[in-house]
Amino acid sequence: MSAARDWLFADIGGTHVRLCRWGRENGAGDIVRMRADASAGVADALLGFERAQTQPAAHAALAIALPVRRGPLRMTNRDWILDPESLRATLRLRTLCVVNDFVAAAAGVPVLGERDSLVLREGVPGPGSRLLIGPGTGLGVAALIGTTGGDERVLASEAGHMGLAWQGAEIDALHGLGRTRWGRLSWERLLSGEGLGWLHAWRSGAATPAPAPEVASRAAQGERAAREATQWFSRLLGAFAGDLCLAFGADAGVWLTGGVLDGLAETFDAAAFLEAFDDKGRYAATQREVPVRRVLAGDLAFRGLARIVDGACRAPMLRLSAATTHRHRN
Fold first, then answer.
1. How confident is the model at residue 328 (pLDDT cuts 50, 70, 90)?
2. Can you give the pTM of this predicted structure?
3. Could you tell me the fold of the domain covering 7-101+300-328?
4. Does domain 113-295 have CATH number 3.40.50.300?
């Protein structure tokens, strides 16, 4: 099966699961997208896809929204537990690779074409790392260091769970909400689909948050509270991204992705984002040179998985075979 698509690729998030077959010679096949709610768990989703294939996969690579460690793994924003060894046995795989979903996506950044992203700022690329940030069901982050064709590797991050830091007093009410509802307020609580709903509730005075698609639709129709919510979302995302740019030395560029940005479309306030991104005191001039793009490609994680399993990019992963289990810390 050397020329066959004998790899099963899966991109498993809190809301959707996307799957395809991939082979080193034939590349990726058609991508199937399903709601995570339609499956009982990871194994159920993968088995449902595999039943429709003419031949079983010999290998699988999963990009999944959780920190990758040994043993059973629990997703952060969905009540699913992944037992890698059990899954490998259930699917009768020779090889199973598990990486964080944003680790996979970051590995795909170097192979994006010009039409695969929208330039928010051209900037002047520096020699440092590249940074990928994505608000969706949660808030994903990963950094890519090294040069393409050289010693390139991905750094995993759970930066979305850092405490929210905003210099002004405008969002004090949200800090109070965070302490009351969650015990603390992390960036992910506001920079996610649910977070957009809470920002809208804050601006509109509603008791409960509206779903993110509804907020985006209201903003597109001109509702004031929704427009304010999307502007604050953009501003806070800029502040978060700017801080991480400094932390990771990401002067080679910042890429934005994620389902919330896809849903916001034209209501995403790029000017508010860049103003907050650049507002870093003595480093403001340096920040203004950092390239910023929005990813348009829908298969970024699959592009990254292909590069990881092909050895083009090193990444922290759990790799299991019939005889061994390895936790790679690249």
1. low
2. 0.93
3. Nucleotidyltransferase; domain 5 (3.30.420)
4. no
